[in-house]
Amino acid sequence: MQTLFTDLLVTLAYGVVGVALMAVGYVLVDVATPGKLHELIWVERNRNAALLLASNLAGVGIIVVAAIAASADDFALGLVGAAAYGILGLVIMAASFLLLDMATPGRLGEILVDPEPHPAVWVSAVVHLATGAIIAAAIS
After folding, report:
1. By the 8 A CB rule, do 130 and 62 touch?
2. Of all helices (H) and strands (E), which one includes residue 25?
3. What is the pLDDT of residue 107?
4. Which single residue of 5, 17, 49, 100 has CA 20 to 30 Å from 108?
5. Cβ count near 104 (within 10 Å)
6. How far apart are CA 121 and CA 2, in angstroms?
7. CB-side exposure of 92: number of CA atoms within 13 Å?
8. In angstroms, rounded to a whole number, what is the distance separating the alpha carbons of residues 136 and 96?
9. Tens digits of per-residue pLDDT, 20-75?
């Protein structure tokens, strides 16, 4: 019974770190998006904004999973690693968004608020997922 209780606490701790990192990811996407992200997605049903946010959250999740898997049953190292790699991943995702924005015509932030689906959002979403996968591979 002690092992089950300990495992539940460890899972809770990792869950809190993962959710906190996804919250930071949400804020970063909100900052990059003109207007309020929650209104764009939940009120206006903007698919561009939803796709970018979803890819950001998935990228963070990929990184956190890799950090947990690489922790080799060392709880403290795994928790700190998940947080550190997650933050690093968010920084790199934000930098890749800015680089893509500079390298392409138009402003990605403005494209996100366009009610019509735009192919550039798919490119940006794949950059988020690829960044998460690259960092995950580097962890292991």
Report:
1. no
2. helix 2-32
3. 82
4. 17
5. 13
6. 48
7. 19
8. 16
9. 999 998 998 888 888 898 999 999 999 999 999 999 999 999 988 888 888 877 88
Residue with tokens 């402003």: 107
The closest alpha carbon to 89, from 130, 49, 50, 126, belongs to 130
Are 66 and 27 within 8 A, CB to CB?
no
What residue spans of the chain are helical by DSSP H?
2-32, 37-38, 47-70, 75-103, 108-113, 119-139
- Beta-carbon contacts of 59 under 8 Å, excluding residues fewer than 6 positions away, are 25, 89, 93, 128, 129, 131, 132, 133
CB atoms within 10 A of CB 75: 14
Alpha-carbon separation of residue 137 from 45, 70, 131 (angstroms):
34, 10, 10
